[in-house]
Amino acid sequence: MHSSLWLTLLLLVPVAGALVAALVAKREGRSYVVAVVTASVEMALTLVVMVLYNNHVAGAQTFDFAGRFVLAAPFGLAYDVALDGISLLMVALTSLVVLLALLGARDRRREPAFVAWLLLLTSFTMGSFVAHDLLEFFIFFELTLIPCYFIISQWGAAQRSRAALKFFIYTFAGSAFLFVGALYLGFAHQHQTQGALTFAYGALSATTMTHGTAVWLFSAFAIAFAVKSPIWPLHTWSPLTYAEAPTAGSIELSALLAKLGSYGLLRFAVGLLPLALPTMRPVLLTLAVIGIIYGSAIACVTPDLKRLVAYSSLAQMGFITLGIVTGSKIAMVGAVLLMFNHGVITAGFFLIIGFIERRRGSATIRDLTGLQGPAPVMAALFTVVMLASIGLPGLSGFVSEYLILIGAFATHVWWGVLGTLGVVLAALYLLWAYQRVFHGRAEGDDAAMTDASTGERWVLAPIVVLIVVLGVFPRPVLDRITPSVQQLIEHVTPAGVNK
Length: 499
Known about the structure:
The protein contains 20 helices and 2 strands. Helix 2 (30-52) packs antiparallel against helix 4 (85-104). 56% of the residues are buried. It has one domain (3-492). By secondary structure, it is mainly alpha-helical.
């Protein structure tokens, strides 16, 4: 089997599952079974890819599972896929999240359409992470907007239409900058080489340009990725959208779509335009620490659990951005690891909040109190996820944030100091929220709330296992990430700035 066929299967299986789910729509429950089976097959394929992945090849200035097929040479269109240690982790996260979203956040309203959109979103997200061509990445990057828009607008809460429209306008407008920048870079490369138009990653990375051109191209890319992540101040769509989306939609947006922004910033802005990084680094470092502190501060006073996770995610995306642009190999490795860990943690948060909302009809903090009494297992599961988000040693969040802060202190100490403040604030707002929701005396509907069912516990089990295992023994994952980060950083930073 050609190695790139494995990645093609990762793209096609969810599309096939979506079509079958739509075809069996008349039989109640069949579409859901099809979706779960499809997501399980996708997870199995991902595990095969992870086993077959050649870390040595990826460390030798190339990518594994590579395959390129030109579709329309005059337009620079090509199907070009490849995988390294960075994208491998994102592929694993995508497969895991969609399976957990289907198992733990089932929505029976017009279920065939709902699961079909989720599976299509999975395919487009996979395509974004394995694309080894800038134009191909942009196409998949844009296609993710369509299923997200319909999931929010058709299955969201009371303000779903407003949230979906705001999300679409923000992200579509931001992507316009990426499109213009991609076209300019592709035509600039064609002009320099006098060859065919191409957007292949390897070709574009060798394009020469002035410092001024690199800066404005980097700015165009960064705007698109900052909206998607989101990064302050282009984040204002996220609290409303996370709160109004259905639980599965909130999981997909926070765990996966946000990572498309940070992945794009790392792979395409930093990777293709290293000449601009010294100029743009202070700007992005400043925006990152503002996002960390601002997100944490607003999370302290937000009245809704979903919005709290949204502002917490803003702070965490600030940490990821901090790690990506420091110029430190340790921090960049930590940023990639935090992309995965944050996806797992936020999926856990939104699943548990969804369980509570399903029972109580509300995720507003003032409507909930004393839940630890009637639902001790749910409280325990929330505690594990919360402590991982805070960065408790021994859990996955600590390893990621520690690596980022160590790298930041080694290269940009004052930004590292400000970033550390976010760790303290995270403990403040998460512990206070836990105290208000789970402590105290439960009365009325709170006292009658049932604990996590066996099925819900099994859905959360992989999240708890990953949080603990990656907190205690992250070495296997770090061994996959580090060679790819080393390869990228050698292209980006001057020799010696890879502490």
